[in-house]
Amino acid sequence: MPVSPMNRREFVKKSAVTSAAVAVAGTAGAPAAQAAEASQAAGRKPEKAPKTWSFSILGTTDLHSHVFDWDYYTDAAYKDAKGNSVGVARVATLVRQQREAKGEDRVLLVDAGDIIQGTSLAYYYARVDPITGKDGRKGPVHPMAVAMNQMRYDAAALGNHEFNYGIDVLRKFESQCDFPLLGANALDAKTLRPAFRPYTVKRIRVPGAPDIKVGILGLTNPGIALWDKDNVSGRMAFTGLVEQAKKYVPRLRALGCDVVFLTDHSGLDGSSSYGDELPYVENASNLVAEQVPGIDAILVGHTHVEVPSYTVKNAETGEDVLLSEPYCWGYRLSVFDFELELHHGQWKVTGKTAQTLNPDTVEEDPEITRLLRADHELVVKYVNTPVGTCTQDLSAAESCWKDVPIMDFIHEVQMKQVATGLSASDAALPLISVAAPFSRTADIPAGDVTIRDIAGLYIYDNTLYGKKLTGAQLKEYLEYAAKYYHQVPAGTKVDTATLTNADNFWDYMYDTAAGVDYEIDIAQPEGSRIKNLTYQGAPVADDQLFVVAVNNYRANGGSGYPHIASAPIAYSSTDEIRQLMIDYVTSKGTLDPADFASPNWKLTQAGTPVF
Question: Which residues form a coiled coil (predicted)?
């Protein structure tokens, strides 16, 4: 699912170099090479083989099917407070500029995963007109495969979201790509052999001298085993990044690779969002750099932050490993520049730098636009399809600190759906729901409701579970959620701008509950904030049993909530919750909060309501 938290103050170092002039930097060794090439072009042998050379590796990550600078949820050009643009169409222009400046054969292009999920475009080609085909028809080519093939990617790591639509969709996407999808720690569950290519070796041609061999190793996130358990259980297994890097980095060196480059769908702060559910670290790129000798540089992904350049010293060799993370969605492009010298027939890295470039000053690539404009317009038409009407405006702007009707809409759909599939004995149990506010900007307007209005509220492709928790477990679950808030002593004014602990416990990690009443006393320390937890007016007993409607990400251990991953299953479905919400509005015709809005929780300070 979404990304994990990290210490922004430590890692997010803003790049001061974003102008077009940067696009022509990093050409150390080029004059000698150009002279040699010119000599060859004139039919003469170069007087002397070059002893130095340079090349670059460009990196993207977490593109999440952003092709154009467009927001399908607002039906307008993408816009945020920082002035970012999105989409590989703009990034493609930066890539072309780099190749023109440095030489086509001096530039490699790599991605660090999370490619085929994240926008309405991604959903359309996975579910509405799937690339795997439908009703006996051959499926289309995925727009991201079209774009990335046109950009001539050399390799991409598997991201955890690659598995959201199932292995069949992922395999079809893989078959449509002209470059390998790498995952050295994505294993076949039966043989424990790599289910995808672990690495690829690329050659940088040097006239009159040996080629520079670049080994690219791909590593993905072990959390897939939890987050997409329904899609991978029994079929695939995922080991740690450090463990597999220790196996494959020496192999790449043994193959004669002069440069070893990793593309990791894993952050670099050593944290995990799933607690102790797995023995492997979620954000392990820094640990790989520190613990595995022989790595020159790592393209980092997964955590959706910008890290232009970061260095980790390898504990065994003392050598510096260079890391860079280019944010997400095509916000940035990482540029790794390498300088090498030839010693006794072997190339050695003598210098390396990294930076991020901002594509917001360039135009979208015209060829990407030509190839994918029709696909884009088809999805725009789809998301603007009306599915019903709404009696009043429903906003999520205050959903992170108030019980608002738009969140009750999600709870209503979840509970109604779970109720349809319970056994007779489980149907007799109290049924409640938990859900997170995924987007503070979501808004369902009064009047016509479209697919994009609902998709903007429920932005993930989660499916639905019903799990059984005791009253004591439910209270611990809600206490875990309540750590989302900073402690604010009684008598102190609450400022919503600083109330939530969103840098370490993101909005998507914060679950509210419906079906029970409770208070969250933010004046109290973490672990003792849930007060007056009742069901139908009576205090919840520790041994009282509940069926809890919950999305598959949380049900399988996402965000580290207690008890829920191991809780007994009362219901499960492969239907996306978003589609269930669309079906709810379609069947009723009118979305009316009078049918579901029921304020059942509130923030307090020592018993006094905050709002």
Answer: none
- 478 C-beta neighbours (distance < 10 Å), count: 21
Looking at the structure, tell me whether residues 371 and 398 fall in a common domain.
Answer: no
- Tokens representing residue 275 in the block: 């607690």
Domain that holds residue 153: 8-13+56-379
- Whether the pTM exceeds 0.85: the reply is yes
From 379, 403, 434, the end of a domain falls on 379
Question: Distance between CA atoms of 314 and 115, rounded to whole angstroms?
Answer: 30
> In terms of domains, do 249 and 373 share one?
yes
Which CATH number belongs to the domain containing residue 397 in this structure?
A: 3.90.780.10
Domain ends where: 329, 356, 379? 379
> Position of tokens 């205090």?
539
In DSSP terms, 334 is beta-bridged to 59, 356
Residue 239 lies in a domain: yes
Q: Tell whether 185 and 68 lie within a shared domain.
A: yes
Rounded to the nearest 10 degrees, the angle between the axes of helix 405-419 and helix 577-588 is 100
List b or e across 165-193, with b for residues whose CB sees 16 or more CB atoms inside 10 angstroms.
Answer: bbbebbebbbebbebbbbbbbbbeeeeee
How far is it, in rounded angstroms, from Cα 241 to Cα 100?
A: 35
pLDDT tens per residue across span 168-213: 999 999 999 999 999 999 999 999 999 999 999 999 999 999 999 9
Q: Which residues pair with 433 in a beta bridge?
A: 514, 549
